[in-house]
Amino acid sequence: MSERPFTDTHLMRRIYSVVLTVLALSFMGDLHAQIKNPVSWKSRIESTSEADVYRLVFDATIEDGWKMYSSNETWDDGPLPTEIVVELGDGQSLVGEVQEVGKFKKVMDPFFDAEITSVRNKATFSQAVKVDNVEDAIKGYISFMSCDATQCTPPIDADFVFFPKLADKPSDTSEDDTSVEDDQVVASGGVQSANPPSTKLDGWEAHPDFPHATYDGDKTLDQRIEVMAATYKDPLADCGEEQLGGKKNLLLTFLGGFLGGLAALLTPCVFPMIPLTVSFFTKGSTDRKSGIRNGLIFGASIIAIYLAIGLIITGLFGAAALQALSTNWIANTLFFLLFVVFAFSFFGYFEITLPSSWTTKTDSMANKGGLVGTFFMAFTLALVSFSCTGPIIGTALVQSATSTVGPAVVMLGFSTALALPFGLFAAFPGWLNSLPKSGGWMNSVKVVLGFLELGLALKFLSVADLTMHWGILKYELFLGIWVLLALLTTLYLLGLIKFPHDSPVTKRSATRWVFTALFAAATVYLAMGFRVNKDTGNYATPKALSGILPPAHYNLFLPPGKVNAKIKKRYPSYGKCANNINCFKDYSEGLAYARETGKPLFIDFTGHGCVNCRKVEDKIWVEGPVWQKLNQDFVLVSLYTDDREKLKKSLISKNTGEKIRNIGRLWAEFQIENFEQNSQPLYVILNTDEEVIATPIGYNPDERWEDYNQYMVCGLENALSSMK
């Protein structure tokens, strides 16, 4: 039992627990496509024999085949124990420890290789709390995780709020009967009190800080706007939005993984293995046909091994968790540090290796021959090459983690590239003679990859910087470091910079000259990002870097355009957004201004860490006709769904039951409640009656600014027509 508010430290612990689970399951397959929550809850507050002491009671019903964990034990390398966290208010204190009732058993758990106390089917957890004022709510959350034979859920926090003045009389709860009379629904893992919140006001009224929403005078907030939700399903006009579908391009994800696999082939951990392995198959086979078959089985085994890793991550996390992870500042800071470690490993200062016992075990299995032996030969290759492939795999997985199936697709691409030469050379062994000889050039490949890892590391630090408003990695600094990295890579390829394992550069091959020229050209291209766009007054982001660099308006030296002081005084969220476009960052304020001016609204659901949002802004919004419409014809409202700015008072969504602690969550809930989706970017055209004019659109990987412009022309015309 612990007493503390929700903090980023607690999130760190949860991330650590999930990582442990991934490692424990990394040798298992057949995972479900999505993780669900197999635990449902009923909760209540009961009075006790002491007048000022109340007991919070949580009854868990666990699906068959699943189990959850005791609250009375902790494990260094085990699952997250069930934990009731009470956020104590004034005059409140805990009485004793958490009590648990159920058929708890302590057995050896194969997942965690430890004795773990768990419970199946049903259990009750309770905590006594002493209160001075029965009018004050008792708030907090219960934290838990669950596992079955093949998978574990990520740790879940379920918020609760109880009111002592509405407490029940004590109930008879025994080990064999944990049912309760109170009906209480749990949605999305959220525990809501069986006692409804007290209503301080008669009915619902506009929230003082967010007038677009209504609240019950306490914490429950309703952001659903009926006319908006209805016209989202049946827009007023058809603006050809089907041409602008925002589907993710999984082919690009596959190609990204494939290129990573090709890069891994050229490293000193993998390249020398190609002729050795193929020769083993051809010489150890009875005929050419069996040699080809063994080589193909070897390649297929490589694909199966790496694809299993992707499927495990896909099944364990799911879309919502991956999306949250991609914008969380702690996760992105950790990724930044991890990529820096990867880079210095590639530079040759140390090696990242797996335990030698793993390699020994798989190698002994490989000696058995047959299909099993061939599979474990592939597994041995995966383990011994980890010092070279690990950083590349880590990079690929992190980059793909914004899509549910992204990790599986990127690993399929990576493993296909890695397996391809083994199958081809087994079929055509004469081609082995055309392979270049191993040598110092392979270390050069690693060093170049090290520079690329450093460049990618900055992207993750940038996401953390933007979402937390640190202001430490603005456009000029980010781009300047990238220019320096490209220049250093060029100098390295010329032999002017050396690292620990480099051989002297006595002769520069044609291939080396080609890559030297490419990185020199990249240096010049990156430097062009410091040019200023005269129309927007911001830096002209190079097209190829859209979505990677910080927004051009997030800079040190170019002052933002001036905003109308009178409007700013009346509407605090008014200011400049991407490309120096006038915008509001609060929906209610934007709507009020639109009604004043008679202009339609252009709602931009975006995020500081949203790569595709930056691509649209850098490639499309910057174009004259689009820029002009956003700046002059529409009222632009940019709602950042990952903004971590805390609300004055936390709220609860009436429609989803989720707790709203910051601005980003507020706008994410607003998007979900009215548009039934949570992906960004999402662009919505509204008239001043809050009616949706055309089906909202998102990111189109084949974006043409002309298509977006035509969509906006159609939306503008129909919006103005509907407002007459």
Question: What's the topology here?
Answer:
Layout: H1 8-25, E1 39-47, E2 53-62, E3 67-69, E4 83-87, E5 92-102, E6 105-109, E7 114-120, E8 122-131, E9 138-144, E10 146-147, E11 156-162, E12 205-206, E13 214-215, E14 220-222, H2 226-233, H3 250-265, H4 273-283, H5 288-327, H6 329-346, H7 356-366, H8 370-384, H9 386-400, H10 406-427, H11 440-468, H12 475-493, H13 510-527, H14 565-570, E15 575-576, E16 582-583, H15 587-597, E17 601-606, H16 611-621, H17 624-633, E18 635-640, E19 646-653, E20 659-662, H18 663-675, E21 682-686, H19 705-722
Helix pairs in contact: 3-9, 3-10, 4-5, 4-10, 5-8, 5-10, 6-9, 6-11, 7-8, 9-10, 11-12, 12-13, 17-19
Total number of strands: 21
Q: What structural class do helix, strand and pairing data support?
A: alpha+beta
Sheet with most strands: 5 strands, mixed
Task: Give the terminus-to-terminus CA distance.
Answer: 62 Å
Kindly provide the radius of gyration, computed on alpha-carbon positions and rounded to a whole number of angstroms: 29 Å
Number of helices: 19
Here the CATH topology of the largest domain equals Immunoglobulin-like
Q: For this structure, what is the CATH class of the largest domain? A: Mainly Beta
Question: Any descriptors?
Answer:
724 residues, alpha+beta, Immunoglobulin-like, Glutaredoxin, 3 domains, five-stranded mixed sheet, four-stranded antiparallel sheet, 19 helices, disordered N terminus
